[in-house]
């Protein structure tokens, strides 16, 4: 069974950040069988994260969240955008992880914000953070502006593509995972058929 930890840093309830995290998790589980998804709402751990930053000791609830992320086969991480970057709560959670906790772990990154202007946060803030932590973000990251929720067709397409890439990383063979009924045939299969 493949395990995926979903870390979402939305502050309101419900939040568009959680909605995007759920959309990404659904996109992955639709193409990857036997997946166990565990969601971590950082909003519920805000005080625990702060206390850990001050004392160096995690509460039992924060320890459980850290263990979930560390033990997972892959990570979906979604943050709201504040002042053109990830939220402080999001960053603080990853600050309390052991520096080697995400070594080589596949990560699907996402962010939410009011306007499309902030979409560059994916490449200028989130990718460098996870590169520093030696994680392996997939090529497609997903940003959802407020306008994307009114007509989510394009958002669904982006989430589906990111989900397939992430599922391919997590699959045991590492082969591309096609969308259902997409007609996609991996190049390796085309070459093998010609032999």
UniProtKB/TrEMBL annotation:
Q: Which domain of life is it from?
A: Bacteria
Q: Name one GO molecular function term.
A: oxidoreductase activity
Which UniProt key words apply to this protein? Flavoprotein, FMN, Oxidoreductase
Keyword Flavoprotein on this protein? yes
Residues forming the NADPH-dependent FMN reductase-like domain are: 3-149
One Pfam family, please name it.
FMN_red
Note the coiled coil stretches, chain numbering.
Answer: none
* Protein name in the entry: NADPH-dependent FMN reductase
Protein species of origin: Amycolatopsis coloradensis
């Amino acid at each position: 069974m493949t395990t995926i930890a979903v870390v979402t840093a939305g502050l309101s309830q419900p939040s568009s950040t959680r909605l995007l995290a759920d959309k990404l998790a659904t996109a992955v589980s639709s193409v990857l069988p036997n997946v166990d998804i565990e969601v971590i709402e950082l909003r519920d751990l805000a005080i625990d994260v702060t206390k850990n930053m001050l004392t160096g000791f995690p509460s039992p609830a924060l320890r459980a969240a850290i263990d979930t992320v560390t033990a997972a086969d892959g990570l979906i991480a979604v943050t709201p955008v504040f002042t053109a970057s990830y939220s402080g709560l999001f960053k603080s959670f990853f600050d309390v992880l052991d520096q080697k906790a995400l070594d080589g772990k596949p990560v699907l990154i996402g962010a939410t914000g009011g306007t499309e202007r902030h979409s560059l946060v994916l490449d200028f803030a989130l990718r460098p953070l996870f590169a520093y932590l030696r994680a392996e973000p997939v090529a497609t990251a997903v940003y959802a502006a407020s306008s994307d929720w009114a007509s989510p067709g394009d958002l669904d397409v982006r989430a589906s593509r990111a989900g397939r890439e992430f599922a391919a990383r997590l699959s045991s063979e590492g082969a591309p995972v096609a969308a259902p009924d997409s007609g996609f045939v991996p190049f390796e299969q085309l070459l093998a058929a010609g032999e």
